Amino acid sequence: MKLLSWNVRGLGLSRTTRRLKNFLRDVKPTVIFLIETKLPNTRMEKVRKLLGFPNGVDVAAVGRSGGLSMAWRSSCRVAVRSYSCRHIDIMVEDDSNGFSWRCTGFYGAPEVQNRAAAWDLLRQLDDIPQVPWLVIGDFNVILFASEKVGGLPRNQWQMDNFISVLNDCSLEDIGYEWSWFTWEWGRL
C-alpha cells in the first residue's frame, strides 16, 4: 500500500490539478492526504473525484488558508474516526490479512502562537496505543536546525516542543523521500 502526503498550496488551479492527476497516475497511491487545498468542500470533492479518488473526507479552507483532504481508492477499507481543520483520522483495514492500523493526516499550526493547541490535539488523538499509528502531513516545524536552509534560524524551544509531542505520542520520524526542501520543486 502506498500513501502520499502533499502540501499542494492551492489545488483549485486547473494546471495544478492536471499535474497532480498525472503524478498520481504514475505513483498509484492507495491513500492520499492533501494539505492547504484552499478550496471549499464542494470544489474539493469535485477535484478529489477528478483525481480518481471517489472516497474521502474534505475539510474546507477557512478564507484563503487551510483546507484538507484525505482520500482513498475504492479497494481500500476505511473508517473515518474524526476530523477538524488540523487533522483527518482514519482506521485502515488491510484486506489481505485483516490487519488494522490508523492513519492520521495532520496539519500543524503555521503560527507559532497556535502550536501548543495543535500539539494538544495530537496528544488527544493518541487514544488507541495498541493499534499501529502513522501520522503524515505538514507539522510546520522541524526536528533539527539542519532541516532548514536560509532565513532566520528556528528557535530551539520550538523544536524541543515538537520532539516532546512526538515522544509523548510514541511517534518517530520514518524519513522523507524526494526533494528535501519544498522550494527545490521549482528547480528540478
From TrEMBL:
Example of a GO MF term: catalytic activity
Highest taxon in the source lineage: Eukaryota
Gene3D superfamilies reported in the protein's UniProt record: Endonuclease/exonuclease/phosphatase (3.60.10.10)
SUPFAM superfamilies: DNase I-like
UniProt xrefs under InterPro entries: Endo/exonu/phosph_ase_sf, Endo/exonuclease/phosphatase
Domain Endonuclease/exonuclease/phosphatase: 4-183
Protein name as catalogued: Endonuclease/exonuclease/phosphatase domain-containing protein
Species whose genome carries this gene: Hibiscus trionum
